[in-house]
Amino acid sequence: MRRAKILYKNQEAGILIQQNDGSFTFKYDNLWMSDDSKPSISLTLPKSQQEYHSDFLFPFFYNMLPEGANKQIVCNLNKLDLSDYFGILLTTAKSDNIGAINVIKIE
What three-state secondary structure class fits 86? Predict the structure, then answer.
């Protein structure tokens, strides 16, 4: 199992987990949920107490991944498999992203 904190404007909004079977779970942080001024991180992941489950990386996070030659370079430099989307996300989305979301690996 691999886990990552999802930050929205440098504040913890939730947690993204890749289960051992390769599926994914996203859950909003309780403090984020209790603050009505905090938005959803995505229209496809509206604020909810429920956990979101998917057999594949949620499209919102998948769309943060590099493509083409950039993806190839990232994978080669970091010794990542081209199909390890969560690994690529953890490597590329921890800082300097377009938008308000950062993905920080939980050790």
Answer: helix
DSSP state of 24: E
Q: What is the pLDDT of residues 84-93, one digit of tens each?
A: 999 999 999 9
Contact 6, 107 (CB under 8 A): no
pTM reported for the whole predicted model: 0.93
Q: How many whole angstroms separate alpha carbon 105 and alpha carbon 67?
A: 21
* 38 Cβ contact list (under 8 Å, min separation 6): 8, 11, 13, 32, 47
Domain count, the chain: 1
Helix (H/G/I), strand (E/B), else coil: 68: helix
Establish if 73 belongs to a structural domain: no
Domain that holds residue 33: 2-63+93-106
Do residues 8 and 16 touch, judged by C-beta distance below 8 A? Answer: no
88 lies in some domain: no
